[in-house]
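Appendix B, record 7
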Amino acid sequence: MNVSPKAGKPAETSILIDVPKLVDAYYAGRPDPSVLAQRVTFGTSGHRGCSLENSFNEAHILAITQAICLYRKQQGIDGPLYIGIDTHALSEPAFKSALEVLAGNSVDVMVDAESGYTPTPVISHAILRYNRGRQRGLADGIVVTPSHNPPRFGGFKYDPPHGGPADTQVTAWIQEQANTLIANNLREVARIPFERAHTASTVHRHEYLASYVEDLPAVVDLDAIEHSGVKIGVDPLGGASVAYWDAIGHRYGINLEVVNHAIDPTFRFMTVDWDGQIRMDPSSAYAMARMVGLKDRFDVAFASDTDADRHGIVSHSQGLLNPNQYLSVAISYLFVNRPQWSPAVAVGKTIVSSSMIDRVAAHLSRRLIEVPVGFKWFVEGLIDGSVGFCGEESSGATFLRRDGSVWTTDKDGIVPNLLAAEITARTGSDPGEHYRMLTAEFGDPLYERLDAPATPEQKDRLAKLSPEAVTASTLAGELIIAKLTNAPGNQAPIGGLKVIAANGWFAARPSGTESIYKIYAESFKDRDHLNAVVSEAQAIVERTLESSGSPARDTEE
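Structure tokens (predicted):
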């Protein structure tokens, strides 16, 4: 792993974005639809790009929004559209572009009543709350965010009426329509100037913050947190949740301190990530260096990323828990402390999340549903209440209300953080201490993820890896017990390969949003065993890449 010497240190002025330059490029850039990197491309979480690279410009957002309007008409979706933005520099320009088109298409749009920022889970919550009990006039939503990605990025994602990420079939349709609109010079895009759009009769003010915050006792035991007096520290990392944390603390009398209220699109207050870039990743020890340094001031502390769909837990006892560790703790606690949940309610995880979750679920006698990477795979189970908790190794999770009904169908970085406070309040032990108890019972795994560059052709080859690519019968000295190209929870293709032995596994797959491939590996033995698993995984991937004409180069995030 090539860690930058700047990792974990305050961001230097030299790496800060030039906000005016970025915004000017958003309006001035003209994407070339014949260039793949400049086309509308939906990954696992919407379209993302940078205006300086002509991959996220006004033309993209006008076209995508018009395509969404066409999709709504095709599907008979005629309820309100809930829209929210995060604090990235390109989010406000993209919001204005989207509103011009939505107003131009006479779509009823729900914007924040205070013209503030709106977390991803709040949009999901609003959609589900509006649609509850309805069969017609259903609502959907848009979130303008590139999530935790560096400040130069912009992002735009669509949530259908189920409130979660749109599935591949939907995004492929929107993507195709948007690229056609761009190729036709946006002639078929209906829009009105923003000065008229934001005062249009179809644009309505919605109290996002109050609606979400008032409903939180339905999902987390805030009374227990209040009565315990547990001392909580929160860093919104300059993101959309900043006003929400203050509101939560004040409304419920929680001993909560927001340690950073700054909103600055350069994110100059961040400590830089492993590669020397600014990245608002609450699961990164480098990006969270300041918060980890404050751990002794609080009983438990946490952070959310820029759109608050990821969580990061800092325990007094252990410091920053990695996502897999906290997912295991949350599952272990929730399925014992939610008596209204049915015994049939399952645990959901992505295929690259830790096998510690498997062991915890088995101990709880709960069904485990293992799906491909992407939160869209959990939506159906959350809506019908058959999946109680679902999470992924990249620090995304949500869970059911205390009565067993759906809360959100997208990742929620707020409620898993509050759950950490509930766990501490009700048990007297913080999540770090709970994880140590789990390792004493189930083993202490070592987990690693490696990223390396890959061309589109190489990514295509990796996505088509088959069990036949593994000719060996053992993995790091243990008999291989499974070679998976489809997720056991729903038989959907994982877009890669997972190889499993008794005490270790690896998975290899291309990224859905970046020009990289990823290797995930875990060992329940020791570092030497993990290194052997990783080495054998790399050899398989390298053989695949070499056959496409380019050898792999190993890096790690």
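Remarks on this record: The chain has 17 helices and 23 strands. The chain has a mean pLDDT of 94.
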